[in-house]
Amino acid sequence: MTKFSKILYIFSIVAVIGLTSCSSPEEKRNNFLENGQKFEQSGDLIKARLEYKNAVQVDPKCVECLKRLGNVELELKNVRDAYAAFVKASELAPDNIEIKIAIGKILIMGRAGKKAEEIAREILEKEPDNFDARVILAISLAMQKNKKEEAYREFEKVRSSHPDKPEGYALAARLLASEKKYQEALHLLETGIKKVREKSALYQTFIGIYAATGDWDKAIHYAELYYQSAPGANTPVASYLTLAQLYAKKGDLENAEKQWEKAIKAAPENTDILLRYAQFLADNKKIEKAEKFLRERLTLKKDDIKLRVALAKLLAGTRRGDEALKLLETGYSDSLEKPQRIALLDEEASINLSLGKMDKALKITEEVFKENPNDLTALSIQAKIALLEKDGEQAVSILRRLVEEEPDNITFQMLLAQAHAMNGEFKLAEDQLRRTIKKHPENKNLWIALTKLKLAQKDLASASGVVSEAMGHIPNSAALYNLNGMLLWKAGDIKGAEKNFRKAMELQPEWLIPYRNLASLKLQAGDPAEAEKTFKEAAKLYPDAPGPKILLASLYEQTGKPEKAIEIYENLIKKHPDSAILLNNLAFLIADSAPARIEEARTLINKALKGLNNPPPTFLDTLAWIEYRSGNSEKAIELINQALAASPDNPTLLYHQAVLLKESGRNSAALEAIKKALEQPVPFPEKNKAIELRQQLQEIAAS
Question: Of 15-29, 40-54, 124-138, 561-575, which gets the smallest average pLDDT?
Fold first, then answer.
């Protein structure tokens, strides 16, 4: 290029820049708005949002820009941002009914019934026949505890004014169903079927009601009708997914799996469907098949981070954390986009935390924060570490931030309550749980957390009251019956405890905990044969699972048959040579009952501890017992104290601490430890021995 050409080239660039810079703010806004509409029509909502945001930045008072931004944010499920955009638009155009309707719908989504009611009434004052406002009003009233009857009247108005529209029937039926008025709800839907042309919403409601009542055949029938009537290109896939879930609920896993296979065949590139199928397999104890499926798909889609993370989770969940970490490491590359890299880092931190490597997990979260200071997964990991390290103030600080970001996240709410309790702020903890329970009364974990909070305050009567209250909301929960059984056992009602444990087993025969508790109850009552029968029954249910066999080994340990327990563990380790839990349990048994093999026990526990920066309390307990049996009582006491620092209310650890303290001549401290062990509400294998030790220590104190 000649010097003159260069000058012309530079001049042309300057001229273009000059022309561009002369465009008015209105023209810029309109360009952004037009581009946003093009992207929105083509389905690229991310780019559309960016264009609309640029338009708003140029003209913050552009109502149309804010409205379109709100619509896109809503499509992207960014409800908060959508709400903010619509509110700002409404402030600029207070008479715009369309925007107010959008705000009302978002308030309904956020379960803000009272505010939605206010918006709806405001619209109806101006437009008494506005259908959307009438529906919003009816729904908002249904959300409020003392306004159900008024809600029914509003739904009736909807049906009267628009008898051909499904909302008045479907939504009213859902309200009736929420109050368990199933027959009334079904009758209303049957009436609606005869009057409305678009029946898909009614079919959906039929599905929900029949699913709620456990009539899976009818739920499946209406699901098939729904997908015959519902429009849309994704309808076949959606039908397969819904039918798969219904067949699974019915217990027909063969047909459920066929529906999953149809869905995958119809949408082989849809990663979310692939992940849901793998989860279905895992939930139904087809772990090997789930793993094989994920590995096959990952071979086909090597760059799919979601598949890689899902497989890592599966491996970590089956105690193959090191293998999971290696899998994640192979996913890193220079071509990774920021969200993909963060997803890998988050999962890597989570797995390290599950392996007890808290320092490594913390280091990874700090790396995440460099890329995204507001990453919720990393923040939740830091909160969990703070709780594990008994740093209640730090935990509260992080969890308040998490709850503010995700106010409907039940896990964050429960962890915040736990952090308050750790700080001795029991009233704050209870208020936190009660507020969350009010929104989610069907969540058993919230009730269990509240029960444990009462037990932490040594208020057994209030704990029992909480469980009774919970059963009123969740009448067929195995977890609640099991918990109630433990409370009755603690109160001395042995028959009541057994009845509740058996009910839990009946409701959820695959769950091992009630079997363990019932066997422990029988053992304490002096009936080891019945306890053994209970565990063998569980082992028959799961011949390939180690859990029932571990329970049986524990029983043999308690009944003075350690050689049988050792044999069980040795056979299990042949199948699961790297299982840290099995290695730990066998090491403890050998140290406790076969002193000649003490070095073998030490080798086993060292293998179990390999790679763990922060060993679980039970592993430290085994180390302590090995030192005790080796004649190193002071070292043993140091180790058991470390274990109790992480798990201060563990009755087995407290019993072992008492034994070690008595051995070293510290009888008064030993008596305090054994009393605390026996105060715990949970059963533990050494309870009878603990009672004997308490008697010995009390006699020593009295002499």
Answer: 15-29
HSE-up of residue 406 (Cα within 13 Å, Cβ side): 16
How far apart CA 246 and CA 251 sit, in angstroms, is 9
Give the CA count within 13 Å in the CB-facing half-sphere of 150.
Answer: 13
Instruction: Please check whether residue 683 lies inside any domain of the structure.
Output: yes
3-7, 73-77, 565-569: least confidently modelled range: 3-7
Q: What is the per-residue pLDDT across 300-315, written as a single tens digit (0 to 9) for each?
A: 999 999 999 999 998 8
Which of helix, strand or coil describes residue 19? Answer: helix
CATH number, domain with residue 688: 1.25.40.10
Sign of the four-CA dihedral 151, 157, 160, 165: negative
The answer to whether residue 364 scores a pLDDT higher than 90 is yes
355: three-class secondary structure by DSSP? coil
| Each residue's pLDDT tens digit, 430-443 | 999 999 999 899 99
For residue 452, what are its two tokens?
Answer: 């444990």
| Angstrom distance (rounded) from CA 540 to CA 563 | 22
- Mind giving me the DSSP string for 27-56? HHHHHHHHHHHHHHHHT-HHHHHHHHHHHH
Tell me which amino acid residue 193 is: I
User: Dihedrals φ, ψ of 144, to 5°?
Assistant: -95, 135
Alpha carbon of residue 568 to chain centroid? 34
Kindly state the tokens that stand for 123.
Answer: 């619209």
Sign of CA dihedral 643, 644, 650, 651: positive
Domains of the chain: total? 1
More confident residue, 20 or 504: 504
Residue 107 lies in a domain: no
Instruction: Say if pTM beats, i.e. exceeds, 0.90.
Output: no
Phi/psi for 50 (5° steps) reads -60, -40
What pLDDT sits at residue 10? 40
Assign 174 to helix, strand or coil.
Answer: helix
Q: Computed from CA positions of residues 193, 199, 203, 206, in that sequence, does the dihedral angle turn out positive or negative? A: negative
The residue to which tokens 């080994």 are assigned: 553
For the four alpha carbons of 524, 530, 532 and 538, in that order, the dihedral sign comes to negative
Q: Supply 190's token pair.
A: 């049957």
Q: Which of 63, 72, 71 is nearest to 29 (CA)?
A: 63
For the chain, give the longest Cα–Cα distance: 112
Helical axes 410-422 vs 444-456, angle rounded to 10°:
0
CA distances from 454 to 411, 421, 433, 585 (A): 19, 10, 12, 32
The verdict on residue 542 lying in a domain is yes
359 assigned to some structural domain: no
Supply φ then ψ for residue 384, to 5 degrees: -65, -40
Q: Which residue pairs, CB below 8 angstroms and at least 24 apart, start in 42-48?
A: 45/72, 45/75, 45/76, 46/76, 48/72
**Could you list the residue range(s) of the whole structural domain that residue 643 is in?**
518-702
Spatial neighbors of 219 by CB under 8 A, at least 6 apart, are: 206, 207, 210, 211, 246, 249
Q: pLDDT band at residue 19, thresholds of 50, 70 and 90? A: very low
Question: How far is Cα 440 from Cα 411, in angstroms, rounded to an integer?
Answer: 12
pLDDT at 577 over 90: no
